[in-house]
Structures are given as structure tokens and as C-alpha cells.
Write a structure and sequence with these properties.
Chains A, B: This is TetR/AcrR family transcriptional regulator. Chains A, B: One of its GO terms (molecular function) is transcription cis-regulatory region binding. Chains A, B: Pfam families: TetR_N (PF00440). Chains A, B: InterPro entries: Homeodomain-like_sf, HTH-type_TetR-like_transc_reg, HTH_TetR. The structure is a homodimer. The first copy, chain A, is mostly helical. Chain A contains ten helices and no strands. The first copy, chain A, has helices spanning about 5-10, 10-40, 40-50, 50-60, 60-85, 95-105, 110-120, 125-150, 160-175, 185-205. The longest helix of chain A is centred in the first third of the chain and has 27 residues, at about 10-40. The N and C termini of chain A lie far apart (about 55 Å). At the A-B interface, helix 2, helix 7, helix 8, helix 9 and helix 10 of A face helix 2, helix 7, helix 8, helix 9 and helix 10 of B.
Amino acid sequence: MSGAELAHRLPQQDRSRATRARLLDAAVDCLARLGWTGSTVAVVAERAGVTRGALQHHFPTREDLFTAAIEHVAAERMAFVRARLDELPEHGPARTEAVVSMIVRMYTDQYFRAALHLWVAAATEEPLRERVVALENRVGREAHRVAVASLGVDEYAAGVRETVQATLDMARGLGLANLLTDDSDRRTRIVARWSAILDAALAEQPG
Amino acid sequence: MSGAELAHRLPQQDRSRATRARLLDAAVDCLARLGWTGSTVAVVAERAGVTRGALQHHFPTREDLFTAAIEHVAAERMAFVRARLDELPEHGPARTEAVVSMIVRMYTDQYFRAALHLWVAAATEEPLRERVVALENRVGREAHRVAVASLGVDEYAAGVRETVQATLDMARGLGLANLLTDDSDRRTRIVARWSAILDAALAEQPG
């Protein structure tokens, strides 16, 4: 059944929700592949198979569309990670390495590529900047909470907050290093090494 | 004495060198402030106070101009760091922290901001992409060599290469985090914590 056929069988509210989801996916996909300059509202509408009017009904401005798209995918990724915490090794070095791998994966996929384009565009576009700063605060805080929960550490113990933050910053750096070339071999070695260091650093903590 | 007056007193070769240096500085400055889209050849020529023809005499294409500019500033920064290695504390935690601070500073200034714009633009512009990949390979290798030399470690000892690379990736992540807002307070705490962890991890190494 095609998307259009499916759409006709759904009640209005569900169709509206489906259109919104298609627009968000299309926006992230365009941003990751074409960058900010190439990702016009018209290009996203065409990719999602909706009219420009329908797009603007859901997202009045280009900034609304792209910040909503990045926030949506970020929330999905983190919910996915949270839902899988039970599947991780219970504790010790194996858990730490599984968590670091998972975090690094969040920062080296298509979503991060899209977020990076939005982030860098925001540096020189004022209406976008304010929106992205607010978005990054929310996403950054949630990433921190997910990392703390996954590692199973007490973030109020001395140094733990900074150690977790450093791990997220390293993951962002690895995401950047993966933008132009496939950096996965180097990354695998760094993730293994950093996991061992991190595990030892966190084990030292009292509490 | 103005730049123009100075230029007239210099022999042709020196004038040409001075023009080239002005163009490189203007290119990095434009890129950091205006991003890739805003940094046209015309904007850079105007900022440097030279004609478009003079610019094109030095740098036939836009790609030539910006990759040369980033490479030039990167080389300058690393030479600056190498020249100051003697001023660092001799060894131990104080040296490690001084080196980490120095590395992080390289990735959180105007130069890195400019490089980031070029890097992200290269992801969606094919003629630029190949040039930036080659450039980043050269700059990345030199950053690694400078970090190894500064830390005074044996990079052939097990895990050292990856530990140094993780530090550079974290520094890049901190650079990214500093793009839209002043991240210096958070960064100071992370640098202190990372330095302590890094120092312990490197001290463990045999040799």
C-alpha cells in the first residue's frame, strides 16, 4: 500500500500526524544530505510528497521545521537508548564499553550529520541561532541524563559530571571526524581505549 | 604608516608576499564571521583591500583561497605551540594540564570556527570536499605529532596513540560546543578533569 493510499484510509487527525512525521523525516534527510543551504522548504515539501501549503500549516517557518525535525529525531534516539538499558551488561568494563559505543553511535549517524549542518548554519544566521541554542540546551541536558543513567553513576560524586561531559564532547568530536570520510576503524580503537580509561576513572569514585 | 603606504616601499616580491598574507588573514576572518556561503571571493578581496584580479593571481579558485588560508593558520598555530614547549612545566600532572589546555585552545578559537565552516561546507560541495579531506589529513597528523611531543609520551606504547587521539577528538567536541555560546566555564572544568584522567592513564604506560 502506498503512502497516499494509506493516508486516505486514516482519520483526519492521524493523517495530519502522518504528514507531520513525513515532513520531519524528510527535513532531517535533506539536511544530512544537502546541508542547510540546499535544504529549502520547497525541497523538503517535495521530498515528503506534500504541498508547500501543507508544510507551512505544520511548520510556519523554515526555522520551525528544522529545529522540530532535529528535536524529534534526538528525542527518538534517546528514547531508543533508554528503552535498551536493560539489555546492557550489568556493570563493569563491559557495560562501560557498551555505553560509550552507544553514545558514540548517537553522534556519528545521519541524525548528527543533520544536526551539525543546522548548528553551523546557526552560527551565522540570527533568527536560527537563538532557536538552535535553546534546542541544543534541551538535547544536551537529555544526552547527559541518558549517559549518567546508562553508566549507572552518581553524578553528584566529585568529578563524575565532568567525566561524563568529557565523554559526550569526545563523541561530538568523533562525529565531526566522521563527516567527510569513514572514520570507523580509528573510532573503534578510540572507543575501546576511552572505555577502559573511563571505567577506571569512574571506579575510583567514592559512592 | 598605512598598509598601502607600506606596500609602496617594499620590493615587488615582498609586496606580493604581504598581499598573500593579507588575503589569507581576510579569508579566515570572513569564514569565521560569515560562514562559507557569505565568504565569497569578492567579500574577501574587499576585506583585504585588494582587487579581485590580484586575489585570483594568488589563488585561482575559491577552494584554493580557503584551503590555503586554513592550512596557513593551522601551521602558524602549531609552530607557535612547538616554539613554547620549553616553557611548559617539565613533567607530571601540571605539564599534562598545560598541554591539554593548549590543545583545547587551538580548537576553540577563531581559527577553528573558520575551519569548522569549511569542513561542514565540504560535506555537500564536491570540488571542496576532496581538498578539505587532504587538508584535514595533513593538519590532523601534525596536531597528533604536536600533542605527542608536548605530552612527552612514547606513542608506540600500547594505547598511547588512542589516548592522544581521544584527547584531540574531545578538543574538537569542545570547539563545536563553543560555536554558538561561550562555553568557557564548563570547558575549564572539563579540561581540569580530563587532564587528571589523562595524566593517570599515561603514567600507567610502561616506558
